[in-house]
């Protein structure tokens, strides 16, 4: 019998059917580390496709058969299965992702031991929101109070790491903007990523994107300054002028700030902030266009290594000042763009004397953008001990980087 690589076949995954378009399969897994008081939930929706069954689906969406040389070696890229939905109308797509987002917020709060009405803030990385007010709507449906701060972050794969970084690092605030980390210190915060990439890529004519990207989501409960204690961090922009990974912006965006940053911060209303990153735009209005897996390696590795190294050296200096120079980073929670990107990044870091374990943990999802780091963290969570120092490494199209170190629990 063929071995199953489907997330839906994991023993602790709860499977439900969302009553949209005849029924869409939805599965999620709750994770909680009682020693840390930290938990969350992650999952996916649609049908599970392995590397044999994905080809007919890709060809049907691409509109023609793929040549053998155009079909990626997905095993080598670290992906064994992923989740896709059929073509739906706009109303069904909206309702589907509303129900997924609502349930995830409720489950993440429950795992953390909170009632929805106790949640003080929700920060969500979502690269292609199905509606402009998506975060506000799922919060309302989940029973999270209107007074809670909502932050929608649109920075592609870096979205959830930007969200967590903003919740923890008080130095990120620009002049005239709310200091999110100071506002949220000691409060109950849900942070996550939710990406309906099957919907987003459905009409793409990019054979690589159709093979790599799929649906997934992950949310964690955080109490900044208590369960997550910020140590050091850095955000960085290095715009992809060549459009190696071009993404259509399905969110409001006006232009660069006066300080030259391509990240725009907008106060949508007193309780909702939108953070939008400029993307290189695909030709002809396509959802996404990419130069292939090697293009992603070139795009992310060189700058990514430098940003991680900068944060690592700052971390080492801090440990010396604290009198604990021997205190190592226990693990790196790295976005899973593909295995070759992560492997090469680790190799380059080792060449300059930086050795951080970076486990590959998301083979059953594909590249799931902003959901990726959240799933990696939750799968690593049972192995984290109180007082461990963790490095989060987020990066994505645009190109945007958020790298930071925290102490978990303890």
Question: What key attributes describe this structure?
Answer:
single chain, 410 residues, alpha+beta, Peroxisomal Thiolase, Chain A, domain 1, nine-stranded mixed β-sheet, four-stranded mixed β-sheet, 10 helices, 17 strands, 27% strand, globular
How would you characterize the overall build of this protein?
- It contains ten helices and 17 strands.
- The protein is α+β, with helices and mostly antiparallel strands and 410 residues long.
- It has one domain (7-408): 3-Layer(aba) Sandwich (Peroxisomal Thiolase, Chain A, domain 1).
- A nine-stranded mixed sheet has the order 1-2-3-9-8-6-7-13-12, sandwiched between helices. It has a four-stranded mixed sheet with strand order 10-17-16-15, with helices on both faces. A two-stranded antiparallel sheet has the order 4-5.
- α3 links the parallel β6 and β7 (149-154).
- α2 (90-111) packs across α3 (134-142).
- The longest helix is centred in the C-terminal third of the chain and has 29 residues, at 293-321.
- The chain is globular and about 60 Å long.
- The model has no long low-confidence stretch (mean pLDDT 95).
Structural class: alpha+beta
Rg over C-alpha atoms, rounded to the nearest angstrom: 20 Å
How confident overall, as mean pLDDT? 95
Give the CA-CA distance, first to last residue: 45 Å
Major sheet description: 9 strands, mixed
- The CATH superfamily label reads Thiolase/Chalcone synthase
Task: Give me the CATH architecture, please.
Answer: 3-Layer(aba) Sandwich
Q: What order do the helices and strands follow?
A: EEEEHEHEHEHHEHHEEEEEEHEHHEE
Strand content: 25-35%
The name CATH uses for the topology is: Peroxisomal Thiolase, Chain A, domain 1
Question: In CATH's first tier, which class applies?
Answer: Alpha Beta
**DSSP strand tally:** 17
Task: Flag low-confidence runs.
Answer: none
Helix content: 25-40%
Integer tally of domains: 1
Morphology call: globular
Strand order of the biggest β-sheet:
1-2-3-9-8-6-7-13-12
**How many helix segments?**
10
